[in-house]
Write a structure and sequence with these properties.
The complex is a heterotrimer of chains A (375), B (319) and C (353). In chain A, 42% of the residues lie in helices and 19% in strands. Chain A contains 13 helices and 14 strands. Chain C has 15 helices and no strands. Classes of the chains: A alpha/beta (375), B mainly alpha (319), C mainly alpha (353). Chains in contact: A-B, A-C, B-C. Chains A and C meet through α1, α2, β1, α3 and β2 of A and α7, α12, α14 and α15 of C.
Chain lengths: 375, 319, 353
């Protein structure tokens, strides 16, 4: 008995010692972890801004936000900006709930209860900022051997995605593509399996531009049963790439080597490009704004203006003009100014393939930025 | 609770274990153990209350306000169907395989190789589920295209393989296989550990009586490990039912109810659907999603009740 | 164990009946493999089909041969051996493929920079995941510290103390708990903290709580299973020496089961370490290093990999490379942990056999 207990006690003591050692090791490793602030701060570390702000929202903005945060933190080495790509709905909800995040990214404008909640959070109707900062064309991508320049009218496009047109050599497709050799192959449409702003904007386009064919209610959920579904832009692009005779919709910057269809606008066919996408906001009307600094747009999807690409996603930044602490206000002000400014739009174009804001929009953002902390 | 001496003694008597002396240490220790047990109940109750509270608005809501417009049952039923279908495929494939792998490691493979193998399999339990998902679409899906086409051509008369075959391989069958691969290491790890602990005296007794290796396994190892196999399978089933990311990444979902395993229109699963729709949802949609989570909870409850019943019956036989 | 290896061809059988030559089964298998591979190489029939039929034919052939020479019992034994081995090969194939995929794709960015730098100020190529690695260690560490004591104590209660309705219901509800979908655990943990700290809260510790909800049932289950097979005579011997029950549990029962408990705990850690869904909604995204679980957002490897995959920039490759490297890192982390666990097991565990 004595030896048994002694031995076991010894063993347990050793175990404790070993666990302690493990813990110490872990702490040691932790202490070694460094941040690459030094490498980033070497360039232009000249501001006296400091602190941390957090935002959340649309994952469409994720790549752009990453670039913005990097650019902003490089300019202001003592600051940290984080953006949680939880989705537009999540972002709006967190913003309305208040406190923890100071700005939100959303693919859709605030409406109803959420709008009221956001106004309440900011302390007044005119204290809410909602401005478009990220404009990105949605490309119709396809994978069809031997067909290079696919052209599709809005109603043909809607019929394909609705499942009415089932093969690639359908006369309706052939009518738009006289010179192409279309194969007798089944069309596999690929759509998003997750609820998304990309789906909502694409469906919105179809319901306006091809109202006769597309009679579904517009939402972030894909309304048609059947077809291939994939998660996220990467998933859709992956599915279109790995299948054959596939067609889907995805952020233009992610199209890669896939074929990109030109879309019928008025009498011509327009491909997605930064310039063509930016034009749509100029052709669109501002909505009846519920506040001084709310700049939301009803996009003119059925525009016939030459050289305009109508399938565009516009993502808004939501913020307040007043915050609980002056530090928050100062940081949000500086950050939004950077995002809406020339530098910010340029890095987003490079990193995420978005279209830079037109000067009119940039002025609106600037006006909102100026109001932050002024009240 | 059982900290009072009388109940504890009663327990010891009924369990047929001699009564040990009692000290203050005993009270503290058994108290701590009981508290931990009750703590788990409290935690689970917390989860249940949270689920109920969040699901309540959706349960009370008018049918047309639920996503889909025809009520909560219509919303959840296809998802529950998909969840069970995927998990059943996974468990049917994984359990026999896992038992075979565990047996191979404990009884067939040379000792040195067996150690390495069990180590590698333990490692695989650690592969994050999104990696299984990425592997599913990058490797398994394309690789399974040929087999799925073959199934549709030769076994197309079965409802499972009716087709038309998906051109990307992102089907329920592939999800089932991925889930099986995912839970295999878990089931194997637990089963192996118990198989290896079959009393040596039983094994050698059987062999000494002239049993072949298989007869020895059938008479000693399998009965000894039966409860562990079932309980490990439950662990695996739990994970298969609740798997979120891998299914969300792989499956081409379409809100239908179908036994067709190889087309691109598949029922979604509850967990995957939550992950897919939660980020962009707000208001009542969130409540409906959480109500579906509650349904998943209930499914697990039923499955576990059944499994418990089986285990209890077996325990009586093996003690 | 060595006794078992001698029984592949029981000596008794050879006295009564003939037995297959020692090269028999192996020769048959290799022969079948050569024929099958030859067929695949020479003709264009479906490779999978040829392999499946080769395996089936080989098994049936071996069984028939053995049955003719050695009789039914040995034939069954050989048949099962063949079945178990081929099932093993079949099961291990996807696992090997998976491991190969992760290693080969993850290797591109499995470099020094990946471990020493964070993603702060990184756009496009470059950058590292030190913030995510440290975050994973901290979050999993906190979750382990919380759930292992509770889990082991609860298992001790179930096996050594529990009785009646309470025991039954805990056993049952632990089972139910294994079925909590990970994302629900995340939602619960978030709701719990949001109640006290306000909505929109994101902390490392919330993720740890969510992971604990997932870990506890695994630890309880594994520990209980191990305690169950600790021979009763060990307990009885201890009681007979006048050792109190709690000391018996701590000094005899737990050390005896230690090996199994440790591998159960490792399994639980491994299971939650790569968990994505609950952390996605509880710990937030963060590209700088944060080591404090109760202050501010925290990145971790699984979420890092997921976000890199889901939201890549214009140049996709650097993002995908980082995602695979993060997955590889997770596996290496678990590998290291389980090496340590094996070491502990070898030093402090007690053999029961």
């Amino acid at each position: 008995m004595g030896t048994l207990t002694g031995g076991q006690t010894l063993k347990l003591h050793r175990l404790t010692a070993l666990l302690t050692a493990c813990g110490a090791l872990a702490l040691g490793v932790a202490a070694c972890g460094n941040d690459n602030t030094a490498s980033g701060g070497g360039d232009t570390g000249s501001s006296d801004l400091s602190g941390t702000i957090a935002g959340a929202g649309a994952s469409t903005q994720a790549a752009a936000q990453e670039a913005w945060a990097a650019g902003f933190q490089t300019k202001n080495p003592a600051t940290t900006v984080s953006y949680d790509p939880v989705g537009s709905g999540g972002g709006r909800e967190q913003f309305v709930a208040g406190g923890k995040i100071v700005f939100a990214g959303s693919d859709a404008a605030l409406e109803g209860d959420e709008l009221k909640g956001a106004q309440k959070r900011c302390g007044g109707v005119d204290n809410l900022i909602e401005a478009p900062v990220y404009i990105s064309p949605i490309a119709i991508v396809y994978n069809l051997d031997g067909v290079e320049d696919l052209q599709l009218g809005p109603e043909t496009l809607a019929s394909i995605f609705k499942g009415d047109i089932k093969t690639w050599n359908d006369p309706k497709i052939a009518a738009d593509n006289l010179s192409a050799k279309l194969p007798d192959m089944r069309i596999s449409t690929v759509h998003r399996s997750d609820e998304s702003g990309t789906t909502e904007n694409f469906a919105d386009y179809l319901s306006v531009a091809a109202a006769k064919v597309w009679k579904f209610e517009v939402s972030g959920d894909w309304p048609v049963k059947g077809g291939e579904a994939a998660q996220g832009t990467s998933g859709v692009v992956g599915a279109v790439e790995s299948g054959s005779g596939t067609i889907g919709y995805a952020d233009e910057s992610q199209a890669g080597k896939l074929g990109v269809a030109k879309i019928g606008v008025g009498g011509e066919f327009v491909g997605p490009s930064a310039e063509a996408a930016a034009k749509i906001l100029d052709a669109s009307e501002e909505t009846d704004d519920p506040g001084t600094f709310v700049f939301t747009y009803k996009l003119a999807r059925d525009t016939t203006e030459s050289g305009t690409y109508p399938i565009v996603l516009v993502s808004y930044e939501i913020a307040c003009t007043a915050y609980d602490t002056p530090q928050d206000a100062e940081l949000v002000k500086a950050y939004l100014a950077y995002i809406g400014g020339e530098d910010g739009q340029k890095v987003a174009a490079e990193a995420a393939g978005s279209s830079p804001l037109s000067s009119k929009l940039a002025e609106q953002v600037q006006a909102a930025v100026d109001a932050i902390g002024a009240t | 609770m059982s900290t009072t001496p009388t109940t504890s003694t009663d327990a010891a008597l009924t369990a047929g274990v001699p009564t040990p002396p009692r000290r203050p240490g005993d009270r503290i220790f058994s108290g701590a153990a009981t508290a931990a047990g009750i703590g788990i109940l409290v935690l689970l109750a917390g989860v249940a209350i949270f689920l109920l509270q969040e699901a309540w608005p959706a349960i009370k809501a008018a049918p047309e306000d639920i996503p889909g417009g025809t009520g909560l049952v219509d919303f959840i039923a296809p998802l529950a169907f998909g969840t069970v279908l995927g998990a059943v495929i996974a468990i049917v494939l994984a359990v026999p395989m896992a038992v075979a792998v565990a047996l191979f490691i404990t009884d067939y493979a040379p000792r040195r190789i067996a150690n390495t193998l069990s180590y590698v399999i333990d490692l695989l339990a650690a592969v994050p589920s999104i990696v299984y998902g990425l592997w599913g679409i990058a490797v398994l899906g394309p690789a399974a295209l040929g087999i799925q086409t073959w199934l549709a051509d030769h076994l197309g008369f079965l409802p499972f393989f009716a087709g038309p075959v998906s051109t990307t391989g992102r089907t329920m069958l592939v999800v089932g296989v991925v889930l099986a691969v995912m839970i295999l290491p878990i089931i194997t790890a637990v089963t192996r550990e118990v198989f290896a602990r079959t009393p040596r005296i039983h094994r050698e007794g059987a062999l000494a009586l002239g049993a072949t290796r298989w007869e020895m396994i059938r008479m000693t190892v399998l009965p000894f490990g039966r409860s562990a196999v079932i309980s490990a399978s439950m662990l695996g089933l739990g994970r298969a039912l609740g798997e979120t990311m891998a299914v969300a990444i792989i499956l081409s979902v379409s809100g239908v109810v179908t036994f067709n395993l190889i087309s691109s229109t598949n029922p979604s699963t509850i967990a995957a659907n939550i992950a897919l729709d939660f980020p962009e949802s707000s208001g009542l949609d969130v409540n409906a999603l959480i109500a579906s989570g509650l349904a998943l909870f209930a499914i697990t409850l039923v499955v576990n009740m059944a499994a418990r019943a089986v285990i209890t019956r077996n325990e009586d036989a093996s003690r | 164990m060595s006794a078992l290896d001698l029984t592949a061809t029981p000596p008794r059988a050879s006295l009564v009946r003939g037995s297959l030559p020692s090269w028999g089964p192996r020769g048959l298998t290799i022969g079948a493999a050569i024929v099958a591979l030859g067929l695949i190489a020479a003709t264009d029939v479906n490779a999978a089909l040829v392999l499946v039929s080769a395996v089936v034919l080989c098994g049936v052939g071996l069984y028939a041969w053995s049955r003719a020479v050695e009789g039914a019992r040995t034939a069954t034994d050989r048949g099962v051996t063949f079945l178990v081995s081929s099932a093993f090969a079949l099961a291990i194939a996807p696992l090997v493929s998976l491991l190969y995929t992760v290693v080969s794709r993850g290797f591109a960015r499995f470099d020094y920079q990946f471990f020493t730098e964070s993603s702060r100020n990184v756009v496009g190529a470059g950058g590292g995941a030190s913030h995510a690695i440290l975050g994973t260690l901290v979050i999993t560490g906190v979750a382990t510290l919380a759930s292992v004591p509770i889990g082991i104590l609860a298992a001790v209660y179930l096996q050594e103390y529990g009785h009646g309705r309470l025991k039954r219901s805990i056993t049952f509800f632990v089972d139910v708990m294994t079925g909590i979908p990970s994302i629900v655990a995340g939602l619960f943990a978030y709701a719990l903290f949001a109640l006290f700290l306000g909505p929109g809260i994101r902390l490392g510790v919330i993720g740890a709580v969510a992971l604990s909800v997932l870990m506890i049932p695994i630890v309880v289950r594994a520990t209980e299973e191990m305690l169950k097979i600790v021979p009763n005579h060990l307990r009885e011997a201890s009681y007979a020496l006048g050792v109190p029950k709690w000391r018996t549990v701590v000094k005899v029962v737990l050390p005896t089961a230690l090996g199994g408990i440790i591998s159960g705990v490792m399994l639980a850690i491994a299971r939650v370490m790569g968990e994505t869904a609950p952390l996605l909604i509880t710990t937030g995204a963060f590209s700088s290093v944060n080591l404090n679980p109760v202050d501010g957002r925290m990145q971790n490897l699984a979420v890092f990999a997921f976000n890199q995959y889901k939201n890549p920039g214009v140049q996709r490759e650097p993002y995908f490379d980082r995602a695979w490297a993060a997955a590889l890192t997770l596996i290496v982390l678990v590998m290291t942990l389980s090496l340590v666990a094996r070491l502990i097991q070898r030093r402090f565990g007690t053999e029961t056999r």
